[in-house]
């Protein structure tokens, strides 16, 4: 692709400068509502990636010595700018993801909340001290930054997920190289501009672009200490296996199949509303979406009401305030979901609501998919076994809470789950026995606020320390333990005391 074909070429951000890449390989960025090209993003060359990492490594030597309160004040300034430019960021985000404006604003806001937590970095960097661990010997621990950290982020949350990563890492004293999704690079670039405007020194944040080749180069680079990733299961496995093979600390957040258990005593009006919103919101393109309703006993009787409610929900462009959600990210993503819907029908599930032939007036080329509801689903069907990542909800009927718990614990994923019930004992049994990292009780999407951590389990996460909260600080730092002894006879006294008045 020649320079003559560029539509708003996306720059790299290296050493505090927005630079035009010398790459000969560029990827088109499209608006999912129209599939029109809105930008071109480069696949950075190895020399450009080396330059970004070298700049980050050099900057680390001075940034690590910056006082913790000063790093916290940078984050305070940054969160204020993010709030000031909230709507602008949401508009950029909508243009490249297709999200409706309210959803895009939510994406930005959840990132702002993490930046606010990063401003609390001083209390999160505290070590521990024990006096007199032996005679006249004290021990204490220091929390110190690691060096150059790297983040590889997905298309579905182009503000929130980068803001999960680089503010916490940089506040802890590291420098950071971000590789945003090549499908949605524009939001990340604006985040970098605002970070610079907030007073971030040149070199603490770098942004490079590209696909698998660029990711693999980052994973193997000897100067990168940590890798943070959010994305699909196969890619998360590759990131984790490759990164750890190169002796890096890795956190890789993978896919999910999130279940909502509905007990017969639940408030069914609330259940229907929350099932619809949590399954089709953001076109189902979120790792915490509820994609399976587990209906216990008589709760199966809500399917007709659920069917009516799902039919009322309509997708549309971001400038339509009445649209419940936007398009899927790409034609390929839509085709994959359509194939899974067809498989569900062929394997015997009842398609109560079929959104396969959805159209939106004025946007004939968008990646539209209407809400889709299946009942009579069994665990051997593809629509249950695979993460659909579209506005599709499948319903499974079970006879008891124990059966529901076994069903969920047998599933390979463990990202999020919820139970809707009026019975405290049922809720307590569920939250205690369920092998899922994030549990909601009468809450459909239990994403923790940033003073906790995002804690997916089992096949939804590869690594040991999770995103944001206290675990993120531990992920981006190392603990140094000091054991010190001072001798009383060395204390200067009287005429032998030396006083330095400088």
TrEMBL record:
Keywords: NAD, Oxidoreductase. Residues 19-482 form the Aldehyde dehydrogenase domain. It holds the Pfam family Aldedh. It comes from the Bacteria. It is an enzyme of class 1 (oxidoreductase). The keyword NAD applies. PANTHER family: MALONATE-SEMIALDEHYDE DEHYDROGENASE, METHYLMALONATE-SEMIALDEHYDE DEHYDROGENASE [ACYLATING], MITOCHONDRIAL. This is methylmalonate-semialdehyde dehydrogenase (CoA acylating). It comes from Photobacterium gaetbulicola Gung47.
């Amino acid at each position: 692709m020649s320079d003559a074909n560029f539509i708003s070429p996306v720059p790299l951000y290296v050493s505090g400068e927005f630079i035009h890449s010398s790459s000969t390989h560029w990827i088109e960025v499209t608006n999912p509502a129209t599939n029109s090209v809105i930008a071109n993003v480069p696949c950075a060359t190895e020399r450009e990636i080396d330059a970004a990492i070298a700049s980050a490594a050099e900057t680390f030597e001075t940034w690590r010595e910056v006082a913790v309160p000063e790093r916290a004040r940078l984050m305070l300034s940054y969160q204020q700018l993010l709030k000031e430019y909230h709507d602008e960021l949401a508009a950029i985000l909508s243009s490249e993801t297709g999200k409706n404006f309210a959803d895009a604003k939510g994406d930005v806001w959840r990132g702002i909340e993490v930046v606010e937590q990063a401003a609390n970095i001083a209390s999160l960097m505290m070590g521990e001290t024990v006096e007199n661990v032996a005679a006249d010997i004290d021990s204490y621990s220091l929390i110190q930054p690691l060096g150059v950290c790297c983040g590889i982020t997905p298309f579905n949350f182009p503000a929130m997920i980068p803001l999960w990563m680089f503010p916490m890492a940089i506040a802890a004293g590291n420098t950071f190289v971000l590789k945003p999704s090549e499908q949605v690079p524009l939001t990340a670039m604006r985040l970098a501009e605002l970070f610079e405007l907030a007073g971030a020194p040149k070199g603490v944040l770098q942004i490079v672009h590209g696909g698998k080749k660029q990711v693999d180069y980052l994973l193997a680079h000897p100067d990168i200490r940590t890798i943070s990733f959010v994305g699909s299961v196969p890619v998360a496995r590759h990131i984790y296996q490759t990164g750890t093979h190169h002796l890096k600390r890795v956190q890789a957040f993978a896919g999910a199949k999130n279940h909502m258990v509905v007990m017969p005593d639940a408030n069914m009006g609330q259940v229907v509303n929350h099932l619809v919103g949590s399954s089709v919101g953001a076109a189902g393109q979120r790792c915490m979406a509820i994609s399976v309703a587990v209906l216990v006993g008589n709760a199966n009787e809500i399917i007709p009401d659920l069917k009516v409610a799902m039919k009322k929900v309509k997708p549309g462009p971001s400038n339509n305030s009445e649209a419940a959600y936007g398009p899927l990210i790409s034609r390929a993503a839509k085709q994959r979901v359509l194939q899974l819907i067809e498989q569900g029908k062929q394997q015997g599930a009842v398609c109560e609501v079929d959104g396969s032939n959805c159209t939106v007036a004025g946007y004939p080329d968008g990646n539209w998919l209407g809400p889709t509801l299946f009942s009579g689903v069994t665990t051997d069907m593809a629509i249950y076994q695979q993460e659909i990542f579209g506005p599709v909800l499948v319903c499974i009927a079970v006879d008891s809470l124990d059966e529901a718990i076994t069903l969920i614990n047998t599933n390979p994923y463990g990202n999020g789950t919820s139970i809707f019930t009026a019975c405290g004992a049922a809720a307590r049994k569920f939250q205690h026995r369920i092998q899922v990292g994030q549990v909601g009780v009468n809450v459909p999407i239990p994403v923790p606020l940033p003073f906790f951590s995002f804690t997916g389990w089992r096949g939804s996460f590869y690594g040991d320390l999770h995103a944001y909260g206290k675990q993120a600080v531990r992920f981006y730092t190392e603990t140094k333990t000091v054991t010190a002894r001072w001798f009383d006879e060395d204390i200067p006294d009287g005429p032998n005391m030396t006083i330095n008045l400088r």
